């Protein structure tokens, strides 16, 4: 039986055949620690929408996992994603407002300039590493701009974000836990002077998320801890996920040369193609919810107070929802995948992420139509987040 803490050999290379068996044979899959995995599209859809029976608050889960006095506990129980109303609504309103169409349109020219400069640098090198030189370099700039983090101070952000989100994995070594705790503490210390500076010199609240978070008076505004931890969350949320979207897309287009040719012949397909990359290789493969009462799926009852794992990677290939679920159809429509979850916690940054994917992958392909992956590709090795740590390539 599928066990999140004892994955079969070869899982990271191809989790999808394992997910298919899980989805078909044990759609309500008990885990040794009393949690359950759900993997059918319709079940995830129901859970995301029903915020009465399935809540996001994780205090009951993260208390035993991290210890209630730890920096990781403070972070993960204060960020909006692991909260329900009222904190969730309060923070979300501010963030959604900052992702308005005007703010996103203003970001697009800067994004194109950034992508083109990275492409120039890669062209000069010839042999490149697609995560460090490209996929990882884009989101950090975009989110750094969104929060107004000075460019020369962005260096440590990527490692902090990997450590803090990495601590959400089902199983942690003491070293990973220590790295996560240290990263939350360092990140908070780093934000202190940025927040103090912004208090003295507020930015444009239309586009500057940090100024918005500081100035909001929705339901009395945010406490200091809420402000810090939600800044950290937004920096992390938009980072590794978007890196993985771009890296996974470039790997998919290497494996499916016919699709690469199709996209080159018809570049307008890039918009629907990005959603197909997100469906097939979802950067975020698992989410969680806690049951507030006994709930029954397919004749199996999950007790109240149970942590459930939502397997997005399996649901996004459910044949009940998607025709030819394992095929990459660049113009797939409709494509109501759950890569951005669903319901009231649907990803706040989805339009921004799609824009980054469209511009990064689209322009990369136009510049390097014959790119080839080289040996040495290394997967991130995580269950929750799916992507590459290294993706060497030749672009000349
Ligand atoms: C391809 C890139 C991305 C993917 C796959 C992704 C995926 C997700 C998912 C699955 C969730 C829901 C988690 C849950 O409730 O279980 C989420 C929430 C969130 N994401 Fe994203 N995300 C991406 C990019 C971004 C970006 C660029 C930003 C910000 C600029 C962002 C900000 C957020 C925020 C603030 C939430 C919390 C929403 C809430 O709880 O109401 N994400 N994301």
From TrEMBL:
GO molecular function: heme binding; iron ion binding; monooxygenase activity; oxidoreductase activity, acting on paired donors, with incorporation or reduction of molecular oxygen
CDD domains associated with the record: CYP164-like
Superkingdom field: Bacteria
InterPro entries, per database record: Cyt_P450, Cyt_P450_B, Cyt_P450_sf
Any one Pfam family match given in the protein's UniProt record, by short name: p450
Gene3D superfamilies: Cytochrome P450
Assigned keywords, A-Z: Heme, Iron, Metal-binding, Monooxygenase, Oxidoreductase
Listed SUPFAM superfamilies: Cytochrome P450 (SSF48264)
Annotated family: Belongs to the cytochrome P450 family.
Function: Cytochromes P450 are a group of heme-thiolate monooxygenases. They oxidize a variety of structurally unrelated compounds, including steroids, fatty acids, and xenobiotics.
Protein name: Cytochrome P450
């Amino acid at each position: 039986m599928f066990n999140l803490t004892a994955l079969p050999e070869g899982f990271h290379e191809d989790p999808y055949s394992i997910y298919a068996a899980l989805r078909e044979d044990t759609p309500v899959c008990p885990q040794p620690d009393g949690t359950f995995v759900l993997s059918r599209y319709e079940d995830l859809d129901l859970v995301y929408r029903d915020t009465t029976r399935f809540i996001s608050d994780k205090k009951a889960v993260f208390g035993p996992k991290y210890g209630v006095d730890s920096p990781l506990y403070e972070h993960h129980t204060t960020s909006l994603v692991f909260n329900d109303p009222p904190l969730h609504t309060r923070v979300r309103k501010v963030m959604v407002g900052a992702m308005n169409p005007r703010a996103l349109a203003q970001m697009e020219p800067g994004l194109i300039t950034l992508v083109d400069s990275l492409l120039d640098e890669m062209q000069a090198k010839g042999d490149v590493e697609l995560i460090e030189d490209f996929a990882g370099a884009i989101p950090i700039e975009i989110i750094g701009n969104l929060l107004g983090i000075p460019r020369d101070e962005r260096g440590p952000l990527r490692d902090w974000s990997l450590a803090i989100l990495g601590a959400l994995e089902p199983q942690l070594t003491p070293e990973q836990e220590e790295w996560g705790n240290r990263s939350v503490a360092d990140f908070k210390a780093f934000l202190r002077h940025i927040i103090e500076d912004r208090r003295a010199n507020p930015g444009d609240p239309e586009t500057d998320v940090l100024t918005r978070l500081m100035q909001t008076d929705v339901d009395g505004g945010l406490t200091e801890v809420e402000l810090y931890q939600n800044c950290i969350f937004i920096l992390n949320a938009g980072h590794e996920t978007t890196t993985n979207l771009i890296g996974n897309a470039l790997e998919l287009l290497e494996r499916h040369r016919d699709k690469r040719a199709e996209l080159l012949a018809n570049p307008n397909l890039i918009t629907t193609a990005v959603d197909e990359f997100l469906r097939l290789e979802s950067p975020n493969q698992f989410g969680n919810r806690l049951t507030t009462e006994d709930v029954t799926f397919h004749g199996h009852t999950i007790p109240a107070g149970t942590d459930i794992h939502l397997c997005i990677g399996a649901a996004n290939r459910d044949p009940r929802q998607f025709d030819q679920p394992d095929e990459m159809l660049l113009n797939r429509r409709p494509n109501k995948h759950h890569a951005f979850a669903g319901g009231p916690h649907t990803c706040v940054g989805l339009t921004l992420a799609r824009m980054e994917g469209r511009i990064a992958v689209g322009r990369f392909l136009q510049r390097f139509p014959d790119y080839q992956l080289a040996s040495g590709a290394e997967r991130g090795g995580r269950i929750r987040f799916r992507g590459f740590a290294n993706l060497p390539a030749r672009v000349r």
